[in-house]
Design brief:
This protein is of the alpha+beta class and 796 residues long. The protein is built from 22 helices and 23 strands. Among the domains are: 159 residues, Beta-Lactamase (2-Layer Sandwich); 166 residues, Histidine kinase-like ATPase, C-terminal domain (Heat Shock Protein 90), CATH 3.30.565; 140 residues, Rossmann fold, CATH 3.40.50. It is rod-shaped, with a radius of gyration of 64 Å.
């Protein structure tokens, strides 16, 4: 997805999300409020429709109060404590009272009964509405009383108070008495005041029965429903076959709540209001349909307008987002091209953004940064070229130093060995001096090798040769090699190998051997009493998972103080000066061991206390990580020998006997000292030696000498024609293609060895030459001289 598209989508999301959320949250609320206001208006209209009903009931209550103040004559005489008049007189008075009641209530035909009840709860007088004449008459109907609880409550009212009863339904009313189908009663107490003490006394009650069964006809468009779901009808009406619960599903649940409710289904809305309470049937409900069409039309108009506004806003946001995205894409493209110019073409980039101010400042800063980067890159390239030249000079210097140091050392070591080998011709003092010369030369050679090899390791020129290594075999071999030196010093060397360990691991055997040899050499050097233990076990601690094997060397030597332990791994440093003076050494052994351990993905731990001995532990992985392999010269350091070890080696390593039966060997070397050192050694082995000072002389001798040569010892560093060119020329001559050639040189780098072998050399020996190694090469290429020497001794 392009950056422009991503930015556009992001800005759209950023701009539209609040808008859509506002629409989703607020618009439904607005519609709900509108609907609520609309319903409130309908409800108010419903209440207005029933306002005249409230007034009607209020007027009837006023009539009740009037009759309570002017009770019928029988109760009135009782109130005045008069003797009850005769029947004729009371009848005349009640007739007159009836006429007065008809004049007062002539237009209030819904008042069906006026009943007077004395304070004992008995009916003393009643007036009933004649449905034929519409007049109130005495005794036409049985008094319709609402119940004693209601009457008792009326007896407790204050003067002038009116109590309204629940509506009573008379389902068994005769057809001629339809107006008693649904009755509402009003009751008010009758009180009188004593003329003697002024106290009020309850005489009884006046009760009005109102016919309210005609409400369903008076209020058109309104549903009148009883609490059981039946419609309110006169018996003379056609009774509906259905009920409200069936016509309006779910209405029964609304009625069960007993409060104002809105019924909705299929677009139809009806308000249901519990208007009256009934005596035995619960509330009487009225329902008013709500016409939703005005609200629906308004809602659709509002939705259209809101949608139009949102569409316009979305379009504006899209245009703005696209403009910003194009702007940002242009900026990113300028930035991409500018960085490409700087990194790939090394050209200074200019970012000329103008608006806004922050972007202009950023462009100016990036322009300066690019210019600075170009300058720094050029300076670094020049410096890198200089470093490459310097490194090449360093390599050449190391090679030259190695050659110049090893060449005289070769003569010193060979001649001193020859002298030590002719011990019967020297006095004991001269023999000791020859041994000291040879020992000092070997120490000097070891020091030179160590310093040069450390330089190669630090330069990353050491190479790994991974392979499967038999740990038990390697440790046994090391123990056998080092034990004589420990025993010579009066020390013990013990090997311990735990069970249930892998038989082999993948690592570089030579580098592992050198690390352990350095550990053992240090243990030998710094231990005066006791001995050392070489142990193979499983590792423990934080590195156990990555490096599960541990090879440790523990000794009982002088130990190392905890604050000085870090120094032992630094080049040319020892714990203190007295250590160097007393035990000798350069302080490079553990430094090289640490670097070699890094090459094979191992780790070295040290645990030591002063005068308590030391334990050096090498933690090894089971397999060698391919990423750890480095390529380079492949030269690796040998263990740093001590003076005693070297001296002892001279005493034991006499010149071996050999007889090569007059084989002819051409020694090619420009250094006379090497020729003087090698010639007597080779002649002592029965070899006829011919010398050449450079490659031209060697080729001339090989091609024009009367007798052929059996082998050539060839130096590499020679004037006019070096050893490489000489070897190349030799292999180009048919007669010399298979002539054995052993390179004998002070150049010990791996690339020198590989180059010589690639040009056709059969062997490669480094100066100073070890006599035993030289003899092994001669035996390999000329046949065993030791066998012939032994045969000659037997013949003698």
């Amino acid at each position: 997805m392009k950056l422009r598209t991503q930015i556009t989508l992001f800005l759209l999301l950023l701009g539209l999300t609040p808008l859509l959320m506002s629409f989703v949250i607020n618009v439904p609320l607005v519609f709900d409020k509108l609907e609520s206001f609309y319903h409130d208006a309908y409800l108010e209209k419903l209440r207005t429709d029933f306002h005249d009903l409230d007034q009607h009931i209020t007027r009837r209550q006023e009539m009740v109060r009037l009759f309570a103040k002017l009770p019928e004559p029988g109760i009135a005489h009782t109130a005045e404590n008069k003797h009850e008049p005769g029947n004729d007189r009371l009848a005349r008075e009640r007739t007159a009272y009836t006429d007065w009641a008809n004049r007062v209530l002539f237009d209030q035909l819904d008042i069906t009964q006026v009943i007077f009840i004395n304070n004992e709860g008995k009916v003393s007088f009643s007036l009933d509405r004649d449905y034929q004449t519409g007049l109130l008459k005495t005794g036409n109907q049985e008094p319709d009383l609402p119940g004693m609880d209601f009457l008792s409550a009326g007896m407790k009212l204050a003067p002038g108070a009116v109590l309204t009863s629940p509506i009573r339904f008379h389902t068994r009313t005769e057809n001629s008495d339809l107006r008693r189908f649904m009755t509402l009663s009003f009751v008010s107490p009758l009180y009188t005041r004593s003329s003697q003490d002024g106290a009020t006394r309850l005489l009884g009650l006046v009760l009005f029965n109102l016919d309210v069964g005609g409400l369903a006809h008076v209020y058109n468009g309104i549903y009148w429903v009883q609490n059981n779901g039946e419609y309110l009808t006169y018996r003379q009406d056609n009774v509906p076959a259905s009920t409200a619960f069936r016509d309006f599903p779910g209405l029964d649940k609304l009625f069960a709540k007993g409060e104002l409710a809105l019924w909705e289904k299929g677009g139809q809305q009806i308000f249901w209001l519990p208007l009256f309470s009934t005596q035995d049937s619960g509330p009487l409900w009225v329902g008013r349909s709500v016409d939703p069409s005005p609200l629906t039309a308004f809602t659709r108009t509002l939705e259209f307008r809101v949608g139009t506004i949102i569409a316009i806003l979305v379009l504006v946001i899209i245009v703005i987002a696209r403009a910003i995205a194009i702007r940002m894409e242009r900026v990113s493209q300028d930035l991409k091209n500018g960085i490409a110019d700087v990194l790939e073409r090394e050209q200074a980039a200019s970012f000329s953004w103008q608006r806004p101010e922050e972007l202009r400042n950023l462009g100016n800063s990036l322009t300066r940064l690019c210019e600075r980067h170009i300058e720094d890159a050029r300076a670094l390239r020049i410096h890198a070229d200089e470093l490459e030249i310097s490194n090449r000079y360093k390599s050449e210097f190391l090679a030259n130093v190695s050659h110049e140091l090893r060449t005289p050392l070769n003569s010193i070591l060979l001649l001193s060995k020859l002298l030590a080998g002719n011990g019967d011709r020297l006095s004991p003092e001269q023999l000791q001096q020859a041994q000291v010369i040879h020992s000092a030369g070997k120490d000097l050679r070891a020091l030179i090798d160590t310093i040069l090899d450390l330089s190669r390791i630090e330069a990353g020129e050491a190479a790994l040769k991974p392979g499967q290594v038999d740990l038990a075999g390697l440790l046994n071999e090391l123990t056998a090699l080092m034990r004589p030196q420990f025993e010579e010093k009066g020390l013990t060397l013990t090997l311990e190998i735990d069970t249930d360990l892998p038989s082999s691991i993948e690592t570089d055997a030579e580098k592992l051997r050198q690390i352990l040899t350095n550990f053992l050499s240090n243990a030998l050097k710094f231990t005066e009493q006791g001995g050392a233990t070489l142990r193979l076990a499983r590792s423990t601690g934080a590195m156990a998972e990555q490096r599960p094997l541990a090879i440790s060397v523990s000794d009982s030597g002088i130990g190392i103080a905890s604050d000085k332990q870090a120094l032992v791994f630094e080049a040319f440093k020892q714990v203190d000066g007295s250590t160097s003076r007393r035990y000798g050494g350069t302080g490079l052994g553990l430094t090289i061991s640490r670097e070699l351990a890094r090459l094979i993905d191992a780790h070295i731990d040290i645990h030591s206390d002063e005068q308590q001995g030391s334990t050096f532990t090498l933690l090894l992985p089971l397999t060698l990580d391919a990423g750890s392999t480095r390529y380079g010269s492949g030269a690796v350091p040998a263990a740093e020998p001590s003076g005693e070890m070297a001296a002892g080696a001279i005493a034991e390593a006499d010149i071996p006997e050999a007889d090569y039966g007059g084989r002819r060997v051409l020694v090619v070397d420009d250094d006379l000292r090497n020729l003087l050192a090698l010639t007597p050694l080779l002649e002592g082995w029965g070899i006829e030696v011919l010398a050449a000072g450079n490659g031209h002389e060697a080729l001339e001798a090989l091609q024009h000498d009367d007798e052929s040569f059996d082998l050539v010892l060839l130096d590499l560093m020679m004037p006019e024609m070096d050893g490489y060119e000489t070897l190349r020329e030799m292999r180009a001559v048919t007669d010399l293609e298979k002539l054995p050639v052993v390179v004998l040189t002070a150049r010990v780098a791996e690339e020198d060895r590989e180059r010589a072998l690639a040009l056709g050399a059969d062997g490669f020996l480094s100066k100073p030459v070890e006599v035993a190694e030289l003899k092994r090469e001669l035996d390999r290429l000329l046949g065993s001289g030791s066998t012939r020497a032994a045969a000659r001794e037997e013949q003698a």
